[in-house]
Design goal:
With 105 residues, the chain is mainly α. It has a domain of 67 residues: lambda repressor-like DNA-binding domains (434 Repressor (Amino-terminal Domain), Orthogonal Bundle). Helix content is 41%, strand content 4%. The protein is built from five helices and two strands; from the N terminus they run βαααβαα. Strands 1-2 form a two-stranded antiparallel sheet. The N and C termini lie far apart (49 Å).
């Protein structure tokens, strides 16, 4: 007797390969947000930090955010919500201050 495969729950989504960049007008994948890049840049520059300096400061404070992720966030590309939370923690601001509001549909 052969068991039939279990159905895949609706919450499971296919992951993009690392080389696949989403289109600018495509909605982000689940669990991802787009940050207010101008606000993120303003917060970083108000502390006179380069992107690398910010990444180094985060790592020293046990906040795991890479310079590549900071560049991605400041260019307006989607990042995981965990990253938004970590950056907000680094700057001592509420996470929703960094998250860009989703456009009304």
């Amino acid at each position: 007797m052969h068991a039939s495969p279990l159905p895949v729950p609706n919450a499971v989504v296919a992951r993009e390969s690392p080389g696949d960049a989403p289109h600018a007008d495509a909605p982000p994948l689940r669990g991802q947000v787009t940050l207010d890049s101008a606000e993120l840049r303003r917060l970083r520059q108000s502390r006179l930090l380069s992107q690398q300096d910010l990444a180094d400061d985060c790592w020293r404070r046990n906040i795991r955010v890479s310079v590549a992720t900071i560049k991605r966030a400041e260019s307006g590309r989607a990042v995981r919500f965990r990253i938004a939370h970590e950056l907000a923690r680094c700057f001592g601001v509420p996470v929703m201050r960094l998250v860009r509001a989703a456009p009304a549909v």
